[in-house]
Amino acid sequence: MLHDKWLTVRLAYLRGLKAPSEQQQQLLLLADKLKRTDADSRILTALIKAEAAAERAQRAKAEAARLAARDEEAARILEAINREEASRERDQELYNAAELLILAGLVDSETRAPVFDRGELLGALLGLANVPAEDPRRREWKRAGDALLGEKTK
Q1: At what angle do helices 2-16 and 22-32 cross, to 10 degrees?
Q2: I need a labelling partner for 60 at 20 to 30 A (CA). Which of 1, 98, 141, 150 fits?
Q3: Do 122 and 130 form a contact (C-beta atoms < 8 A)?
Q4: Rg of the Cα trace of the chain?
Q5: Whether the Cβ atoms of residue 44 and residue 31 lie closer than 8 Å to each other
């Protein structure tokens, strides 16, 4: 009974196609044939099974495409989350660097503006950047900085 309903619906679908396949055309012809031979009936049965399999394959392909699209959307969402997280981490590092400038008294904590002339401050930072890592002044600067950070974190 269920098979008859499926076949009726499927035949109506096939009749609505602009360009049914050769196999589908043969199925339509045999389904409409009033006097079928035993050979016709066997062929019709085989064509019905093939059409049912083709429909299942079509549904499976559509489901696979739907799942792939969902996976792509999930990948896009995950990528956006990762970009946002990386942006937050970069922002946090900038805030940390600004806090160091405030602790050193180079930036006003209220206005967030440099205490010194911008060019003067940048020049001093460029000078610091050019001091070699093995220079003894850097060890002294590190000790003083670690001490101030230790005080502020207490």
Answers
A1: 120
A2: 1
A3: no
A4: 38
A5: yes
Residue 134: CB atoms within 10 A of its CB come to 7
Between the CA of residue 45 and those of 3, 7, 21, 26, 49, what are the distances in Å? 11, 11, 17, 12, 6
The three-class DSSP label of residue 19 is coil
pLDDT of 1 above 90: no
| Residue 139, φ and ψ in degrees, nearest 5 | -65, -40
- The residue assigned the tokens 């196999």 is 23
Contact (Cβ atoms closer than 8 angstroms) between residue 149 and residue 103: yes
Asked, for residue 140, whether it belongs to a domain, the answer is no
CB 27 within 8 A of CB 44: yes
Would you state the pLDDT for residue 2?
A: 52
Domains in the chain, number? 1
Domain that residue 56 falls in:
2-115
Span 13-30, mean pLDDT? 93
Asked, for residue 154, whether it belongs to a domain, the answer is no
> How much is the pTM?
0.51
